[in-house]
Specification:
By secondary structure, the chain is of the alpha+beta class. It has a single domain, classed as HIT-like (HIT family, subunit A). The structure holds 2'-deoxyguanosine-5'-monophosphate. The site of 2'-deoxyguanosine-5'-monophosphate (DGP) has 14 residues, from strand 2.
């Protein structure tokens, strides 16, 4: 089981902000911004490069859910960034697909 599956099954505690039968959203343990939430499918797709066409609806629903999660976190007006790290060059550290939702400060571009 990945660490995020253990969070979904409550084996590991996390500050959960939103949940459906398909995915869960919780605060990142090492926040890189005042708001840093991870949106994670309960089914462990390792990374976006390994997602299948059948995962498309789930991934779309996760993206759309980010709007409500960002609004609930107070980010609707100031804006926010969604990030998916894929593979070692991108800094992927947990092999379970997740969308980072970052906001609450001015974010730089390009990212480091
Ligand atoms: P990435 O580097 O894109 O694979 O992001 C993994 C993120 O997961 C990283 O920002 C830290 C976070 N993380 C790792 N372990 C835990 C944990 O046990 N709990 C929570 N809440 N976040 C975690």
């Amino acid at each position: 089981m990945t660490i995020f599956e253990k969070i979904a099954t409550r084996e590991i505690p996390a500050h959960i902000v939103s949940e459906t039968d398909e995915f869960i959203a919780f605060h990142d343990v090492h926040p890189q911004a005042p708001v840093h939430i991870l949106i994670v499918p309960k089914r462990a797709i390792p990374r976006i490069s390994e997602a299948q066409p059948a995962d498309g609806n789930l991934l779309g629903r996760m993206l759309l859910a980010s709007r409500e999660i960002a609004s609930a976190a107070g980010l609707a007006e100031g804006g926010y960034r969604l990030v998916i790290n894929n593979g070692p060059d991108a800094g992927e550290s947990v092999p379970h697909l997740h969308i980072h939702l970052l906001g609450g400060r001015s974010l730089q571009w390009p990212p480091g």
